[in-house]
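User: I'm putting together notes for a lab meeting next week and I want to include a structural view of one of the chains we've been expressing. I don't have a solved structure, so I'd like a prediction I can at least talk through. The sequence is below, exactly as it appears in our construct file.
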Amino acid sequence: MNELLLIVLAYFIGSIPTALIISKSFFNIDIRDYGSGNMGATNTFRVLGSKYGTVVMLFDILKGVAAVALFNFLPHYLTDEWDRTNLMVGLGLAAVMGHIFPIFAQFRGGKGVATLFGMILTVQPVIALSCVGVFLLVLYLTRYVSLSSILAGIALPICVLWIWNDDVTLYRIFAILVAALIVLTHQKNIVKILRGSESRVPIFKGRDKRKLRRK
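Assistant: Thanks for the context. Below is the predicted structure for the 215-residue chain, given as structure tokens.
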């Protein structure tokens, strides 16, 4: 029963509509009425700029971290690694579902990538940082947040199954499911990228200006 209550609380934490709060507080708009219509960091970068996009991304990551950290309220899980891992994954996924289907925002949320990263950062920090490296590299090269998220998600099972060869079956299954979830929630973005119509986020402007001057 205590575990169920924590999972429900994790869902509520994930449901905190960071992008919606910021867009209404500072711009008096609903972020979901603009850009891709998603309530996440990617669309916030696109619509409100890098400053507010970064704030949303950081808070959405913290939602995943806070949700997973709820296991600390149950002393038994502090000493049992297997049970703790199961609970941490369950709490994290509840937060991700809350972000995608937020009860505080008519169940119209974002794609859950930042919250998912916060979850992985708490459960498997080294692997999470490896995925961040992939994300930042692709973002620097392309300025597509969606493509960066997709490739970082695909990097997760590669890290778990082959690079670090984690032998915990739960981690392996989780990594594959996460990659599949990220690809599925970015289907529209994949189509736009292939068509060349996907929007780039307004960052690394200095780099782009230098390239233009060289031309």
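A couple of points you could mention at the meeting. The CA atoms of residues 64 and 118 lie 4 Å apart. The chain has a mean pLDDT of 87.

User: Perfect, that's what I needed.
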